[in-house]
Each structure stands twice: as C-alpha cells, then as structure tokens.
Specification:
By secondary structure, the chain is of the alpha/beta class. It has a domain of about 240 residues: Alpha-Beta Barrel (TIM Barrel), CATH 3.20.20.30. The protein is about 45% helix and about 15% strand. Strands 1, 2, 3, 4, 7, 8, 9, 10 and 11 form a 9-stranded parallel beta sheet that branches. It has a two-stranded antiparallel sheet with strand order 5-6. Helix 5 packs parallel to helix 6. The longest helix has 17 residues.
Length: about 350
Amino acid sequence: MSEPVRVHLRVPGTAPMPDLMRLLRSIEAAGFDGAGILDSQMLSRDTFVVLGQAAAATSRLTLFPAVTNPFTRHPSVLAGAIQTVEELAPGRVKFVIGTGYTSASTIGRKPATLAEMRACIATVRGLLAGESVDFDGTPGRLGYAAKRRIPIVMAASGPKAIELAGEIADGALLLVGFNRGIVEKALEHLERGARRSGRRLDDLEIVWAVRVGVAVTTAEARRLARPTAVHWGVLRWGGHWVEPAGLRLPKLEIPEAVWKIYPDLSHAHDWEAAIAATSFVPDDVVAQLCDALGLVGTPVDCAARIVEMTKLGVRNLYLMPLLTFGLPEPELAAFRDVVFPRLAAAGVRPAR
C-alpha cells in the first residue's frame, strides 16, 4: 500500500463539554486520525479549553484548533495556549491558523490581512522555538517553550493566501473544493509560494478541507448541503474556483432572506431555514456545486470519491460536516461503518 489516506474530523464546540468528550472518544474509537476543534468565540466553547480536555480524553488522535486566527488572541497568547496543550498530548498537536471567518464576522470586524498572518506565524514560531521575539521594542520569550516541533499549518481558500501558506508555513489546510480541476489549480498556487522560500510541495503537509454531507440518498444529501453549497459556491468561494472546477453558474438574484440567516448560510443555527433561503438556486446548480465542493452523497459515493482523488495524490483530509450546531454523528457512523472499510478494501487506508 502507498502512503495511506489520513482522515480528520471537525468538532464544533457548540455542544456541552461532556457531549464533546464523548464524541471525541467515539471519533478515536471509529478510526479517525485526528480532530479539529472549531475556533469561533461567539459560536463555540473555547477551542484551547476543549483541546486540553480532548488531550486528556484521547490517546492517539492528532488535535488542532480549526481554525484559530491572529486577532481574537495576541500571538503570545496563541503560542502559550498551543504549547500548553502540547504538554498534555506531546507529538500529536498541530497549530492551524487562518485569517478568521465567523470569529471576525460575528463581532463586526474584517478578517486578518495576509501581512498580519505573516507576522503572527513568525512570532508564534519564534516563541515555540524558545527564541526572543520583539514586541514593539520589548523583547519577550516563552519561558516554558518545550522546543518540540509543533507544525504550523495555515488555512487558506484564496490564491494569495495559498501562496503565502506555501511560502511561510509548515503546511496548508486548503478550503477550496475537491475535484480534479480545483486540486490541480490549488497545488499550482501552493507550489508557487513554496518556491519563494526554496521549498517544494513535498516539503509541506497538505490537508484538504472537504465539506461532507451524507444521507441515505444522494438527492437528500444534496438537499441538506444546499446552504453550504450556495454559501461557498455562489456567495464567497466561486470567484476563485468556479472556473477551475469546470462549472458555469447562471446569474442568480440573491434574495434578502439569505442575509438574515445567523450567522450565515453555512453556519446557520436553523438549518431548515437556511435550506429554505436557498430555494432561488436550481437543483441542478446545487448538484454541480456539491460535486465540486466535497463529499456529498451516500457513504458509498463518498468512499468512491476519496479513492478517485487519491489518484491525484490526495492523502490528508479534514472533513467538515455541514452542521455547526449539531454533532457530526451521521458522518462519524458513515465513515466508521462504510467509508473506512471500503478505503481499506481499496488499499488506500489500513484496516484498524
């Protein structure tokens, strides 16, 4: 078997802590490789508190914030937080940081700039290495830096951010979609950035953030995925990735109801209301977007799609189930009972 596919699952901290710990133990028992804890301070429990508890509740899972940012916590606080978690789970922690999304929008501010990302990553890296870092003329160092390697992974969805990740981070978490055209284009940008610092793609950890929606039928999975597909494909993501995905979207008039969903379509608390708000998008367009975005369909469909994408070298997945205000129980069961056995049978993942 070639390099196996690693699969990590998003855990939104929108449920009570005891429920989250039960879920994390189930994720480990199901055979997942890791778990990312949502960081959005108005929606979720504190990501680093959850990570600390997760470190104690599990023994094998890779753990990481998904995704933290440079502005809700000072870079020195971020370095201290991830170092503390790493003491509880040495060798199985990553630091994943992006420009911020709902952590910014829910408090009325814009995401971080790429210059802020560059500065924050440099500061965190230096502090974790035990180095002295300059804070506006004041030198400071992390007194308890263990100096063990904690990979710094930058989340990115636009071309410029992807190139920056390739240039300065240890890896990239790519939230771009999941078909051949998208993967090839995203890797072009990542390689361009890596070359700026004298590196190759092989020097980076590349994680594909994949939207996941499973149901008994493909039609029902697509219905459930409507808010996510429309949000990313029509409102946000489409400008960069529709063309590489091979899609042609019709001109759509966006109704006012879309903007009234809190906090937005893809993180909606009332998911059925979000589905209703997307009725202006034809079913065939939603189907195309679902196919380009990720793994939307039956568990068998999802397994086949992963096997297909491994032929492009995809080996590291971060699954993002549709619901933010609901635990990913259906996805956990689907991967445990159907997807993982099929991947093992196809020789792309070891049987556990």
